[in-house]
Amino acid sequence: MSPADAGAMMLLTVHLLALAVACIIFGVIFFLHRREKIKKTEAKIVPPSVLFQRPIINRPRTWMAIRAATPATVQRALGLNRSSPCSWSEGMTGEHDFFISPRINGWVIVTGAGLPNPSDDVDACFLFLIAVSRKLGHVQFFHAESFSHHHAWARLDDGYVTRAYAWAGETVWQQGEKTALEIELKLKCFGYGDDVYSEKILQANCDKVPMLAARWSMDPARINSRATKVANGIAGESSPVF
After folding, report:
1. CA distance linking residue 230 with residue 20, whole number of Å
2. For the whole model, what pTM was predicted?
3. Measuring CA to CA, how many Å separate 18 from each of 26, 37, 142?
4. What band does 54 get if pLDDT is binned at 50, 70 and 90?
5. Cα 66 to Cα 138: distance, rounded to the nearest angstrom
6. Within a 10 A sphere around the Cβ of 72, how many other Cβ atoms?
7. Where in the chain are the domains?
């Protein structure tokens, strides 16, 4: 090998070594940057145990969420008689005509056998909610039966329905424009007379009713357990008015 070739080979070797060192340095910097980025991302992730409370009680099949009202105001609006203090766990069993929860985060939850079932009589459900909303203002209604896939949700303000949908083997109530959250949750709302053959879609709707409730107001099965022990609710029988 001539001196010129030897010099060229040495120069090439030096360049290759420099390139290798540069690649190693770049790799180390990229690794450290990537690890730091992962740490920051993980620090922002909220553990599932914080995002979702484990269900502390059985979720009622049907419930209302009423905003800006006190339990006593709701009691008077429903015309309850023979009322008495009642714990959350007892109230959520559905053994009373009505159970009115303490006020939590600005909402009062109402459940019980006295609430109308849109699957039985959607007109009675409509009239009941209108009457309650005229007295109490903003009222939300939720209904979900996993076995039959029947489901419903509604929002009313001062006696006017702003949004409602109910499925009971067919669409029995469709009123108002579909909300952004319904679209986000991919809830499927069928028109009157539409043929539906997919139980998967109906079950998905039913399963998402609590999600809709949690975003609109409250999911009664996932209220912080400490909040349910602060005060009792009110249980009572309905008057002939409803």
Report:
1. 67
2. 0.74
3. 12, 28, 69
4. very low
5. 6
6. 13
7. 3-45, 62-237
